[in-house]
């Protein structure tokens, strides 16, 4: 039997193999698609039959917060040139991509000001050093474009009420809405806030978010844990006049009224987003504890001094049950074994809180704590990696993680960045779909070719239709029956012709490739036909 016959038999054996169920790296949920594709020639290096080809790709949101308030992450300082700001942001996106992220959550309204031209707040001083002064370009448009080039989801992060420190009042832009509407403002613990109890404030906040949803190609609107401020001992938020004016008899108490104010805001933001662009997600990352069990038997086994419901007036349970959020990402910034709020106990509580409901559960993690002396658990280099592995063992009940913040990842505390790159997020992941937002997938790519080059294996294909946002590239190695694993994603160029070079393709093995198309909600098509590149320099063409 000559070499050509042997190669042909190897190809046929590979393509006739049974579906193999494999999960992706870090234990992500299965994404295994069985496809029936037409047979082609029997020569090695041609398009082969790919009947029942299994695909293996973890489905996880892997996101990082990029904070702009007080220049925490970006820009590195105020007053940088536009070119320097852009250079820094591109480097941050490249870093996020290099450590396996598939989404960035960027603070676009840090202190009732904006990183884009807005009718609802002046230019932010984090850009130029002077609030109200244009940086000479539109940072938000730039950031979205660059994120999408790298196939990173862009979540626009808003702080709805915080205006800034009272000591900085003189620095407010002359046209700042807080100066135009001083009756909207409450001062608490040295900080100015828009008063959440005033209906006009709520309408103003919703309109400001709607402005961004309408004008920009964002993937999600994101709020964090700042609604009513964290309490200062012995001081109550100064909203008596608003309470007397706007309370209703059914509330029964000021805490109930405050919770209703936040609920109304969340409901209104959700409605405004879905009215404008139903596919744009809405997510909130609240404080990690809803209520302690000693206050409510359905609360968590914690003794936290602060809770969402009782001290921050953020009723996360109400939002989840009402379907107002597409994802919830509690900030579980505590270690395993931390008695007041242990990581595993809280993660399990949130799983039960969200299970079976049209909402995805992500966990907010604290790289900024790694290496701290107190509590001692954060001196353990395995603490945060073990949290990510705990999430992975949830069988998809925890759909991903968000890390605060990119600056802390970049400093590589106790080798955490290295472990993301080489172990935890070493293989790429696809963002989980949200079927309640839409489930129709694009058509599969057409005319896939694979060619070995000096740089790796170059793949070319054509768009199959259905307005794909990006493509997933899968590779199977050798001649066995293993699943084809995700090796990369590439954003749609919009021209119909697409390409990708697999620079990590191993030499000396028969390689099989398939490509799928995904929409912006991450609904995945069936596969393209299979292309093979068994040795560098050979290629296969699809018919």
Short description:
The protein starts with a helix and ends with a strand.
Q: Whole-Å distance between the termini? A: 28 Å
- Determine the fraction of residues in helical runs and give it as a percent range: 25-40%
Strand content: 15-25%
**Strand count:** 20
Kindly give the count of domains: 2
Account of the 3D structure:
This protein starts with a helix and ends with a strand. It has 543 residues and is an alpha/beta fold. Helices cover 27% and strands 19% of the residues. The N terminus and C terminus are likely disordered. It has an eight-stranded parallel β-barrel, surrounded by five helices. The chain has 14 helices and 20 strands. It has two domains: 162 residues, Immunoglobulin-like, CATH 2.60.40; 341 residues, TIM Barrel. Strand 2, helix 2 and strand 3 form a beta-alpha-beta unit.
Tag the structure with descriptive keywords:
543 residues, Divisome_Glycosyl_Hydrolase, Immunoglobulin-like, single chain, Family 10 glycosylhydrolase, alpha/beta, TIM Barrel, eight-stranded parallel beta barrel, globular, five-stranded mixed β-sheet, disordered C terminus, hydrolase
Write the layout of secondary structure elements.
Layout: H1 3-15, E1 55-56, E2 61-66, H2 82-98, E3 103-109, H3 125-128, H4 139-149, E4 153-158, E5 162-165, H5 177-180, E6 185-188, E7 191-194, H6 199-215, E8 220-223, H7 240-246, H8 254-276, E9 281-284, H9 308-312, H10 316-322, E10 327-328, H11 343-354, E11 360-365, H12 383-392, E12 400-403, H13 406-410, H14 416-424, E13 446-453, E14 456-462, E15 470-477, E16 484-491, E17 497-502, E18 511-518, E19 531-532, E20 539-541
Parallel strand pairs: 1-16, 2-3, 2-12, 3-4, 4-8, 8-9, 9-10, 10-11, 11-12
Antiparallel strand pairs: 5-7, 6-7, 13-14, 13-20, 14-17, 15-16, 15-18, 18-19
């Amino acid at each position: 039997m000559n070499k050509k016959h042997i190669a042909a038999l190897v190809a046929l054996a590979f393509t006739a193999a049974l579906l193999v169920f494999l999960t992706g790296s870090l234990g992500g949920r299965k994404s295994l698609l069985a496809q029936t594709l037409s047979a082609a020639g029997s020569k090695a290096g041609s398009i082969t039959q790919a009947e029942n080809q299994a695909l293996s790709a973890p489905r996880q949101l892997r996101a990082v917060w990029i904070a702009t308030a007080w220049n925490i992450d970006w820009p590195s300082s105020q007053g940088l040139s536009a070119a320097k700001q852009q250079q820094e942001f591109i480097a941050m996106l490249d870093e996020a991509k290099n450590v396996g992220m598939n989404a960035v959550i960027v603070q676009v309204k840090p202190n009732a000001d904006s990183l884009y031209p807005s009718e609802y707040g002046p230019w932010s001083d984090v850009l130029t050093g002077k609030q109200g002064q244009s940086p000479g370009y539109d940072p938000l448009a730039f950031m979205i474009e660059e994120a999408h080039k790298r196939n990173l989801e862009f979540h626009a992060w808003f702080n709805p009420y915080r205006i800034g420190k009272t000591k900085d009042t003189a620095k407010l832009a002359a046209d700042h809405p807080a100066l135009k509407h001083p009756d909207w403002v409450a001062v608490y613990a040295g900080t100015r806030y828009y008063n959440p109890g005033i209906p006009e404030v709520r309408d103003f906040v919703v309109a400001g978010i709607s402005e961004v949803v309408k004008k920009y190609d964002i993937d999600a609107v994101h709020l964090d844990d700042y609604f009513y401020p964290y309490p200062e001992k012995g001081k109550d938020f100064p909203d008596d006049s608003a309470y007397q004016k706007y309370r209703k008899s059914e509330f029964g108490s000021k805490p109930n009224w405050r919770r209703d104010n936040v609920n109304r805001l969340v409901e209104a933001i959700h409605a405004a987003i879905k009215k404008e662009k139903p596919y744009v997600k809405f997510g909130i990352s609240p404080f990690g504890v809803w209520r302690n069990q000693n206050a409510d038997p359905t609360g968590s086994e914690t003794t936290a001094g602060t809770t969402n419901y009782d001290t921050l007036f953020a009723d996360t349970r109400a939002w989840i049950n009402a379907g107002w959020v597409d994802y919830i990402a509690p900030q579980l910034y505590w270690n395993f074994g931390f008695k007041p709020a242990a990581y595993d106990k809280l993660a399990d509580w949130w799983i039960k809180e969200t299970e079976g409901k049209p909402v995805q559960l992500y966990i907010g993690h604290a790289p900024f704590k790694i290496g701290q002396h107190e509590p001692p658990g954060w001196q353990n280099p395995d603490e945060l990696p073990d949290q990510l592995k705990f999430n992975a063992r949830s069988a998809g009940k925890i759909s991903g993680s968000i890390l605060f913040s990119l600056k802390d990842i970049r400093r590589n505390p106790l080798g955490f960045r290295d472990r993301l790159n080489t172990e935890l997020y070493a293989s790429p992941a696809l963002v989980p779909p949200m079927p309640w937002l839409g489930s129709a997938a694009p058509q599969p790519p057409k005319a896939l070719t694979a060619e070995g080059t000096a740089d790796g294996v170059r793949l070319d294909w054509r768009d199959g239709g259905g307005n794909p946002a990006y493509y997933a590239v899968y590779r199977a190695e050798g001649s066995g029956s293993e699943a084809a694993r995700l090796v990369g994603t590439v954003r749609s160029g919009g021209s119909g012709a697409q390409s990708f070079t697999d620079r990590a393709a191993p030499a000396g093995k028969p390689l099989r490739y398939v490509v799928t198309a995904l929409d912006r909600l991450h609904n995945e098509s069936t596969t393209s036909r299979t292309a093979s590149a068994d040795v560098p320099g050979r290629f296969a063409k699809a018919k």
